[in-house]
């Protein structure tokens, strides 16, 4: 590599200059152009990296490392952590050993270092992706003194042959990247990291620099204690990334929302995180068929595929990477313009690090997260079976994540507080809560009612059961445990207080520490000491009323129709479509909901489908239903679009991925064979309730299914006629309304749903 020169720094150099050091191998690696008595650090920075000045505390950190001090660096993503160990490794005698958990990051950083010079031997990585021949080549370059930086995975460092090899080479220092992996309270705990100190001592006593982009005060203490670095020089930069915009949206129509967002940012690089590999594959494919240059990236793909995808992303041959949260990315790309979380991460550390991959160059960075409490419950289920201590830690981290997602406070303030840093501004100007303030209401009475209800239920039930009691819903559980005889039964029934409302109150009670959710006992709610104290001495507590993003998303304003201000659908067109539904229903002597549901009409009033093909992309409208009822609707929309000169957002119509309807095909074929619905559900790992939901979706899209053979087994003819006639005469397809009208003691919810499927299938499809 051009310009490499060997140095040794005198102790505690006051002027931060590097004195030239002559040794037996100096002549081999010294560039004749740099035969100076001393070289200042800024000159070395310019020589190797092309920068004119250091960022933040980089120069002080590098000096600490060169002077042989243990050094602890807490610096947010994009702050320049890597340079803090790369530059001292390049200008020190020996080889710097960098421990990194991500194979992708190792490759990326090794490539970057090699690009600064002409010799590939200056930097290597040692991990499971290398062949035996490649490992021998790496070790030879190190032994020959050619390699200044060696990146190793912690697993590779624990192998005895590697420990033996490293004992015999000249090591300048150990660097531990992603040091938060040491702590069980860190977001990506790696047991192998806990062994690093003992391995270092076995190899030989050399200085250590530990670096992390995400560490709460508790994690920081864990790192220092585990590595025996209590006397280390500590450098902590601000966690505030002022160029990032933080936004959380409800998880509704998420694929469509992501496609809309990415297309509004065409040509910009972005990363989308998902919870599972399956979702990564599905979403990447959905993006591809909708004209977006995207690729999946997760640990289940082979190393060659991952490397190719990474290179394509860096070279901007693709715009979007879809990746798993658990695997992490490690792609060092400065101009990532957006990071989207399809699923909420399991900790704020993870969220901060992943969002921190956007805008590393100081430019635009949009951090968009889709939030559903269902995701939190999934993450809680994943923790079952793990050690109790690990579950407790996981629960606390999840609570912090929920609090962040649901808070009405400035998101920047919440994040910085989590990392032990204050933020005094009232409005950061770059998060959704500051730009679109959420409304709050006094929730003291509601919190009290929830806590009292849980106590009355002996703290032995889940949130769903508690809410059913508040709403006076007589479920099977309520009947079995005589909840309808409780004083609290039905006390939460008011016009604007539905299941969603009470769910929010329960979650706020959990976030505020009044309730705990016992995962070991399947999520039973119990009062904490704070909750009992609150009941003794109630006080004012404000509960956030969330933004209603459905129908009020500002992104929809530019696709709205006449007279429309910020609503999701064109209100005038929606009204016209409703009139047409009523007219069609009257002509065919059918209830309006059989023609098209309101959900379908709302989507038509957003997407403006003007052909039968476009109509089939609308939720709840399949080819069958489109063919039977669709012609007058697309004609009405086409005329409306022309008369009002509307620019249609048809690029926002999400195209489905081909051959993804295997489950529906299986269900239809099983029904044709007249198999028991219980057997069909069992074969696909579904509950009967979930199976009915799938059948309802099939029928709603216009496909006819005949489940009479099954209904005949569970309902007598007289009851079938009664329910069938109800749906024929009713303007509502609500199961709840049907149960109230027909008698909750005479029918079950499943029976009503079965008959609704039969009715809609026979008269509407």
Average pLDDT, all residues: 81
Number of domains: 5
Fourth CATH level, the homologous superfamily of the largest domain: P-loop containing nucleotide triphosphate hydrolases
Counted by DSSP, the helix tally is 36
Q: Could you say which overall geometry the principal axes of the C-alpha atoms support?
A: globular
Overall helicity: 40-55%
Tell me the major beta sheet. Answer: 7 strands, parallel
> Uncertain runs with pLDDT below 50, 5 residues or more?
1-38, 547-567
Strand order of the largest sheet: 5-6-4-7-8-3-9
CATH fold title of the largest domain: Rossmann fold
Task: State the name of the first-level CATH class of the largest domain.
Answer: Alpha Beta
Distance between the termini: 73 Å
Secondary-structure arrangement, i.e. CATH architecture of the largest domain: 3-Layer(aba) Sandwich
Count of β-strands: 19
Strand content: 5-15%
Radius of gyration, in angstroms, nearest whole number: 31 Å
Structural class: alpha/beta
Descriptive notes:
The strands form 5 sheets. A 7-stranded parallel β-sheet has the order 5-6-4-7-8-3-9, with helices on both faces. It has a 6-stranded parallel β-sheet with strand order 10-15-14-11-13-12, sandwiched between helices. Strand 5, helix 6 (132-143) and strand 6 (149-152) form a beta-alpha-beta unit. With 765 residues, it is an alpha/beta fold. The chain starts with 16 loop residues before the first strand and ends with a helix. The protein has 5 domains: 17-236, 3-Layer(aba) Sandwich (Rossmann fold); 244-435, Rossmann fold (3-Layer(aba) Sandwich); 439-545, Winged helix-like DNA-binding domain superfamily/Winged helix DNA-binding domain (Arc Repressor Mutant, subunit A, Orthogonal Bundle); 554-652, HRDC domain (DNA polymerase, domain 1); 662-764, Arc Repressor Mutant, subunit A (Orthogonal Bundle). It has 36 helices and 19 strands.
